[in-house]
């Protein structure tokens, strides 16, 4: 099977994987920032750090921008959007698999043709080498 896959392009590596890895990195960065904010807030509550009103204002602004996820319309909308994205991911994976299979079949056909050509040349050489 390996010799069939030798010349097949790798369709599984795409910009989708790049986008996903970038989003994962972004989420890791967000997690680090949120942990930093939590640590600061814990220290303020403990009294080990004084309250910085500028930081509190920025935090309040950030929290005011967050949507209210308890509304049923938002929950339904997020579920529909998530289902749509999952369908697109499933279809793209299915299409990528079909294309990879098509490339594998084309590669196998090409290798068979090359083998026939080599066998044909070997047979001609054998005929030419034998005295008549």
Automatic annotation (TrEMBL):
Pfam families xrefs: MitMem_reg
GO biological process, one term: proteasome-mediated ubiquitin-dependent protein catabolic process
Superkingdom of the source species: Eukaryota
Family annotation (InterPro entries): EIF3F/CSN6-like_C
Domain EIF3F/CSN6-like C-terminal, chain residue ranges per copy: 1-106
One GO CC term on file: proteasome complex
PANTHER family: 26S PROTEASOME NON-ATPASE REGULATORY SUBUNIT 7 (PTHR10540:SF7), EUKARYOTIC TRANSLATION INITIATION FACTOR 3 SUBUNIT F-RELATED (PTHR10540)
The protein's name: EIF3F/CSN6-like C-terminal domain-containing protein
The species this protein was found in: Ostreococcus mediterraneus
